[in-house]
Structure formats: C-alpha cells, structure tokens
Amino acid sequence: MGDYPRLLLTRWDQGGGKLPELKVFGPPPLKQITQQFFGIDGAFASDLRARTKDDCSLDLYRARGGVGDRKPPAPEIRELSPSDVVKEGEWEVRIAPVNHFTPYLTCYAYRLSSGGQSFVYSGDTGPNDALVELADNCDVLVHMCHYLSGTAPSPGFARSCTSHLDLARMAHEARAKTLVLTHITEQIDRPGVRERMTSEMAQIFKGDIVFGEDLLEVPAIEIKAGKLD
C-alpha cells in the first residue's frame, strides 16, 4: 500500500481540480484503508486542510487551472470479490484470489483484456491454481519470481512466494505466451545466476521468458529476434 497515497495525492494536487476522481479497485479492507489515509481524521488530514484552506496552496491550485473552492480528494472506491468483473470502455478486468500472507491479507491477481489481447499480473503470491486458470492462454503473464527452487526457509514462505521452477510450471499450465519475471531478489539478480535460472525455466515453459527491469517495455505479441545490422 506504500505507493497508494503518493499516487492519489500527487494526481489530486497537480490536477488543479480538472481531473475526475480516481477510481480505485481492490480487495477489502480498501475502503477502511482509504478512510484512514484521507478521511477527516485520517493520516493526511492536516496536510489536506492546509492544501484546501491556505492562500498559498489555493494560489497554486488556481495557477494549475483550478476554479472555485478546492475540494479534498474523494476517490471512488470499489472493493472486489473473486467473482467480480470490472468493465470500462473497451477493456475489462477479471480477478483471482492468490496466496500471500493468508489469512492476514486478502490478495488478488488481475487479468486485463482489451482488443483481443490479455495481460495478467500476479501480485505477490505462492503457487496457485486459481491464478493458472485466470492466466489461461494470456499474451503476457507478469509474475513474482522471488527465489530459487529448493531454498525456501520455511513451508510458509513457499506458500506465500513463488520459486523459479514453480513459476515455470504454472506458466506452462496456463499456456501463457510471454512470461515476465518480477519481484526479483538479490539471490537471483547476479550474473550467471540469472542465465542459469532462465535456462532451467525454459526446459519447462516454452514461451518467451523476460527478466523484468525498470522501464522495460514488453510487446503483447510474439517476441522475435531482429535483423543483424
């Protein structure tokens, strides 16, 4: 949840009152968390009072195109259950429950479909049949690859996080076209280890395997080698 308040507050502050309220979808207790962040007695209450009442802040709000009184953020919150489908315009999102710190957290994976293509994001999770079903025949599966198989410090760890060989089996069962490895740890992110790990995964999963990194762009089509210039 660390990025949630930053995203909402920055969007609201820089938007100058011209952007619609942010629509936020997620598992419970999303409404409670939002209220505790942004409610009248929430963690950011003092900051929001200053930004909506002080002349300096109001001057900046008007300089950014704001008109009239400055209202505090009021995001539109929808808590989802595993059977829910979210549709907006030409896209839809379906969800599946995943295993991470259960029963203390409710966690979901998401499948975004649009224009005949699909993108699945696992979130943090251990091996999960519901996620395999959600990702069936997807174009891109972005999935947690947290540690090398056989090195989990406890059974609980293995239930909450996915190892490289477990992930390869899940991607194979899901018939994903491209697998993007994320949530990489220092155990894996070393020269030689990266290559050996992806080679072992490729013995199980025959689609494209991409080692995720910041600002990476992944096509939702088959990845092919380019021309040798």
Topology:
Elements: H1 3-15, E1 23-26, H2 30-38, H3 45-53, H4 55-63, E2 76-79, E3 85-88, E4 91-98, E5 107-114, E6 117-121, H5 129-134, E7 140-144, H6 155-160, H7 164-174, E8 178-182, H8 193-202, E9 208-211
Parallel strand pairs: 1-2, 6-7, 7-8, 8-9
Antiparallel strand pairs: 3-4, 4-5, 5-6
Helix pairs in contact: 3-4, 7-8
Query: Major β-sheet, in short?
Result: 7 strands, mixed
Order of helices and strands: HEHHHEEEEEHEHHEHE
CATH architecture of the largest domain: 4-Layer Sandwich
Rg = 21 Å
Number of helices: 8
Could you name the CATH topology of the largest domain? Metallo-beta-lactamase, Chain A
How many β-strands, per DSSP? Answer: 9
Termini separation comes to 45 Å
Portion of residues in beta strands equals 15-25%
Whole-number tally of structural domains? 2
In the CATH scheme, the class of the largest domain would be Alpha Beta
- Largest sheet strand order: 3-4-5-6-7-8-9
Query: Uncertain regions: pLDDT < 50 for 5+ in a row?
Result: none
Question: On the 0-100 scale, what is the average pLDDT?
Answer: 95
Structural class: alpha/beta
Look at the structure and name the CATH superfamily of the largest domain: Ribonuclease Z/Hydroxyacylglutathione hydrolase-like
Overall geometric form: elongated
What level of helicity do the residues show? 25-40%
Task: Give an account of the 3D structure.
- Helix 7 runs parallel beside helix 8.
- The chain has two domains: 76 residues, no CATH class; 131 residues, Ribonuclease Z/Hydroxyacylglutathione hydrolase-like (Metallo-beta-lactamase, Chain A), CATH 3.60.15.
- It is built from eight helices and nine strands.
- Strands 3-4-5-6-7-8-9 form a seven-stranded mixed β-sheet. The protein has a two-stranded parallel sheet with strand order 1-2.
- A hairpin with a 2-residue loop joins strand 3 and strand 4.
- The protein is elongated, with a radius of gyration of 21 Å.
- With 229 residues, the protein is α/β, with parallel strands linked by helices.
